[in-house]
Amino acid sequence: MTDAVVTGEQSEVDQGRRKFLTVATAATAAAGAVFAISPFIASWEPSERARALGAPVTVDLSKLDVGQMVTYVWRRQPIYIFKRSPQMVASLPTHDARLKDPQSKDSEQPSYALNERRSRRIDIAVLIATCTHLGCLPKQHFDVGDAVLGTDWPGGFLCPCHGSRFDMAGRVFNGSPASTNLRIPPYSFVNENTLLIGQDESGAKEAA
Amino acid sequence: MANQDAQYSPGVWGWLNKRMPVQKFMREQLLEYYAPKNFNVWYFFGSLALVVLVMQLFTGIFLTMFYKVGDSSAFDSVEYIMREVDYGWLIRYLHTTGASAFFIVVYLHMYRSIMYGSYKAPRELLWLFGMFIYLALMAEAFMGYVLPWGNMSYWAAQVIINLFSTIPLIGPGLVEWIRGDYGVADATVDRFFALHVVAIPLVLLLLVTLHLVALRQVGSNNPEGIEIKGNLGADGKPVDGIPFHPYYTVKDVFGIGVFLTLFAIVVFFVPTFGNLFMEEANFEPANPLSTPEPIAPSWYFTPYYAILRAVPNQRLGALLLLIAVLAFFFLPWLDRSPVKSVRYRGALFRGFLAIFTVSFLTLMYLGLKPATGAYVTAARVAAIGYFSFFLLMPWYSRADRTKPVPQRLRSHA
Amino acid sequence: MRNVILAVVVLGLAQCLQVSVAAEEGPGPLAWEEWHAGNEVANTDSLQRGARNFVNYCSGCHSIKYMRYSRMAKDLKIPTEQLKAYLLPAGATPADYFQASIAPADAIAWFGKEPPDLSLVARSRGPDKIYRFLKTFYLDPSRPTRSNNLVLNNPAMPPVLSDLEGVKAAVFKNKQFDHFVSVSPGQMTAEQFDGFVRDTVNFLDYAGEPAQLNRLSIGVWVVLFLLLFTWLAWLLKKEYWKDIH
């Protein structure tokens, strides 16, 4: 009888084959581990229920007056919807110099909202309310020359958390901690008085 | 002392090993751990049990992310997992199949020890830790079974908890205390959840660690039942031992491959496994007004369930059930044979082992059948066979005509 | 009422002819307990028909509360326009769960109990049992629904498919069911009705576990991959164990 192990130094042992099989098995196991882990990673995606709850939200605009704002929730995010007067819209380009991103080049919005007033329709503004700084909800300060924000305030929003300021198109003012304008969700108008948040096209053509 | 650093290789690996003995640990536990060279197929199940444990922990953690405990939300949340969570169905089937797979490998692992006398000195403590793992596993499986809050969950909880009512004096009060209500209810499923996902897994991990530490101390037994440490070579290594790594690591990897293939076939093609791994009645929500018919526990509990039903007395039935489980703990002291492995035992032990094997499997089958007529009679006969293996062991293991055990292992299997 | 009279006549006739019928018809009683649904969940056309059958004949009373219309449409390859036009009840959105049209209170008033949700019926009872249930309704004038069933004695459920299948009576011998006798024909032939029931059962089978559509196809790849891995591990094991004698 000999020892159990005859060490691999003998000539009959093919070290190349041994190495190849070790690498091949290990590589297959590694690939298998990646396959095995992927369903667990996928399980963290928004579930069927979350996706269903994230369906487009319909907003009735018939009772929305000029200077008035309503808040809806779409995909767990508060959405500000407000009606601007022609004067408010007209005043928007006058303070471009005080804005960080007046042309919204670095900000997120659908292509149809990439314009001076940042909206599909001239009067109706639709903004994702979460501040682009750290996610608080900016407060409504629509009055021109607001007591808190000074005589040159053109109307807009002030974030209570860190003081970011936005105008009536959600554009961020210089000196704010936020660096981009408020984001705009995809939306469309089903008809004159019905807004659909979360869906680009709904059959009805854009009114503006 | 001055050139102490010389023993550490440069780079991150050396940095790490200077601060924590990673390399030393791996060398001692794998390269310098000598295992008998003659392990056969029965020796796969220890490493497979470890694989299943890890899988159960992993899938279980993910299930807790989506499961909602409570009598009004548990069932709905399980269907939410099955339908609305991406790959939730896969995670759940892995977990349910894993529960049954756990018992399959653990039963085979235990049977291996009985065949080859692995519970005998010096491995009594190793065996006891294993038995405590088995007990913890039973508690873990039972409580996990209650969580989906299907109708079988409810009635399993009802029946198993009521077993405690047979304890004299404190029984009825104890049952109420375990349930936390006057019947199985929201409070019950809540506490079972906590025990299932936190308390018992911690106990299991501790016990598995102790089991492995004890194994490392005494070394593995083998099919011949010969201590390889009794034959050391000139270099101080057992001549019939081979380094665990690479020989048993590559062998176990192959075993894991075979196991995972069979496991995947069940998970993807027959996850209910013909009503054995997941029962039809558990796809109906818990209903305290309707006992499912037919009702049977999970297959891994049916041997004990059959014993319980074979006895026409409530208290005695519960007592025999308890003894049937605990009998395994005493094997190291019931067995008086001078040899370990069945290969060198005589006809008596082999005969009783055969009786035990047939009895256990018969009881397992009968536990799934209704408790009527010939089934009960058969269960009584099988129960006698089951207990005789343990109770008569001090006699037959000593009276047995054993064969002489050789000094050295024969060549590997 | 006409059906009832007819049934009584037929039943009476059948009782009279019982002996001679048994003598003439060689085979024993109808082996309905051995019927199998034989449905194929992979058959999308069958599932689509089954979904239509369910919406037309079952969803009045039965919900599938864990199943969304949108999920079904995706799995069964039903375009959204068709879903909205033919399957979606008024006022429901595609993301809604399958709801019964009937209010629970009305259901209890009419049937004595709330019709069960059918999300998991195929898992808790099995497709075969549903198939047998739907195919063994028979005329029983003694009951409020004028109908009884071989699988579920005295069901609260009325024979909603009798317009399609026709009405049949059951002939009993020594209180044991023997066979059915047609009382009045339905809109469908026996084969058509059998297909109708099979499609419906198929849909319920799918609804019990929508994931099974993916499960089987993913499983093939997983098992093939594991076989490859096991083969490599076997070669590796053999290679190293050359050392051991």
Provide structural commentary.
- The complex is a heterotrimer of chains A (208), B (413) and C (245).
- Chain A is built from 3 helices and 9 strands, in the order ααβββαββββββ.
- The N and C termini of chain A lie far apart (96 Å).
- Chain A has 208 residues and is of the alpha+beta class.
- In chain A, the strands form 3 sheets. In chain A, strands 1-9-8 form a 3-stranded antiparallel β-sheet, with no helix packed on it.
- The relative contact order of chain A is 0.15.
- Chain A is 19% helix and 19% strand.
- In chain A, strand 8 and strand 9 form a beta hairpin.
- The longest helix of chain A is centred in the N-terminal third of the chain and has 28 residues.
- In chain B, 62% of the residues lie in helices and 1% in strands.
- In chain B, strands 1-2 form a two-stranded antiparallel sheet.
- Chain B is globular, with a radius of gyration of 24 Å.
- The N and C termini of chain B lie far apart (48 Å).
- In chain C, 51% of the residues lie in helices and 13% in strands.
- Chain C has a two-stranded antiparallel ribbon.
- In chain C, helix 2 crosses helix 9 and helix 7 packs antiparallel against helix 9.
- About 4% of the residues of chain C have low confidence.
- At the B-C interface, helix 4, helix 5 and helix 10 of B face helix 10 of C.
Radius of gyration of chain B: 24 Å
Main interface by residue count: B-C, 33 and 33 residues
Described by the principal axes of the CA atoms, the overall outline of chain A is elongated
Report the portion of residues of chain B in β strands: under 5%
Which bin fits the share of residues in helices of chain A? 10-25%
